[in-house]
Design brief:
Length: 390
């Protein structure tokens, strides 16, 4: 049986961060500093998981045809909900499909929401990879982003997971954020690396329309105290060089891992392999069909898995575009033989002009049957990738 990835969307959070445009719904009556439980609305959470379970059961005929190789709980804040819900969803998936012996089961977690008594449920359910959102070690920067946690909260969360035996831990960091300097960014990176996580994701802040940070910038750019472009470039350069020195291989534009710890769930997504998404707003790519559940929680819960915001059979052109657009995000790029096998055409026949243009600029390279972005090309990826949309 072929492999399959599963994404589970948990939309609940304590409060939305100032930069967040993901589907997330605050469900806490209190977000007072130091309150780890924060009194979430359990009635809404319970109703959502009933709908989520119903959607998974309805997908049984698809699931049973595959071996699940990766599961990813994203959000929102999956660690905010009672841990038994996570454990039960994994049990339900196992009732529907076989799991690979080495299946990667990932879960996003925000510092300040982990309850120590929840860890046994995560372990019993099979969670073996946790991604923790640190962003910065500096309280001023965290506050400006609207994060609910302190650096001490992060240290406690990381320590509890390590003590419980979790080896595969990712730390999320963010650059280009309010009040950041070269010195503060260096301190954040060095502190994170000193904890020896297996994986680091380093994302640049994007001011998304409709978010409080975007609106503040529109009203008064100076009020955000964002680092200038040259500072951001220096921070990015230091990040790449330092992580490589410390044994973290850059395998995608924003992701670095020690040997053997690249996120397999994300790699399957970038390789355009089949995955099923469950939950409000969750997307699926299955047998050439792109489908995205409705984002509205009430509509989702009234007809789980039946109401969709997008549901279409991808054209051959769209498949090729996704193959290139996602595949070139990886530092190893795309395989010419894989392209040939999938589409029955040579990559040069379809994308020869775009590839030649950027190879001439030193932004793309061709080697050993692979087309990939050069180090300089990775920094200008958005400009390059747009040329592979037919």
């Amino acid at each position: 049986m072929s492999g399959l990835s599963v994404y589970i969307h948990i939309p609940f959070c304590v409060r939305k961060c100032r930069y967040c445009d993901f589907l997330s719904v605050p469900v806490c009556r209190s977000d007072l500093p130091g309150s780890l439980i924060r009194d979430p609305d359990l009635s809404l959470i319970s109703a959502y998981f009933e709908a989520l379970s119903a959607e998974i059961r309805s997908a049984g005929p698809k699931l049973c045809k595959h071996v699940i190789t990766t599961v990813y709980f994203g959000g929102g804040t999956p660690s905010l909900v009672p841990s038994v819900y996570i454990k039960n969803i994994l049990g339900l998936l196992r009732d529907s499909a076989d799991f690979a012996e080495d299946a990667e089961i990932s879960m996003e977690m925000n510092p300040g929401t982990l309850r120590e008594e929840s860890i046994p449920d995560y372990l019993e359910g099979g969670v073996n990879r946790v991604s923790i959102g640190l962003q910065s070690v500096h309280e001023r920067e965290l506050s400006a982003l609207g994060r609910i946690h302190s650096f001490q909260d992060f240290c406690r969360t990381f320590g509890l997971l390590r003590s419980a035996g979790f080896e595969n831990l990712n730390v999320d960091l963010m650059t280009g954020i309010p009040f950041e300097t070269k010195g503060s960014a260096k301190e954040t990176l060095e502190t994170a690396v000193s904890l020896k996580p297996s994986h680091l994701s380093v994302y640049s802040l994007i001011l998304e329309p409709g978010t409080p940070l975007f609106e503040a910038y529109e009203a008064s750019p100076e009020s955000l105290c964002l680092p200038d472009e040259d500072t951001v470039l220096e921070i990015d350069g230091f990040t790449r060089e330092y992580l490589e020195e410390q044994g973290y291989h850059r395998y995608e534009i924003s992701n670095y891992a020690r040997e053997g710890y690249a996120c397999r769930h994300n790699l399957r997504t970038w390789d355009c392999r089949d995955y099923l998404g469950f939950g409000a707003g969750a997307a699926s790519l299955y047998e050439g069909r792109r489908r995205t559940n409705v984002r509205d929680l009430k509509r989702y819960m009234s007809s789980p898995g039946r109401a969709a915001e997008e549901d279409k059979i991808l054209t051959e052109q769209e498949k090729m575009e996704e193959f290139m657009f996602l595949g070139l995000r990886k530092t190893e790029g795309v395989s010419l033989s894989d392209f040939r096998e999938r589409f029955g055409r040579e990559l040069a026949e379809v994308y020869g002009e775009a590839a030649a243009k950027h190879r001439a600029r030193g932004l793309l390279s061709l080697s050993a049957e692979r087309l990939f972005l050069t180090p300089r090309g990775l920094e200008l990826s958005n400009q390059i990738l747009s040329d592979f949309l037919l």
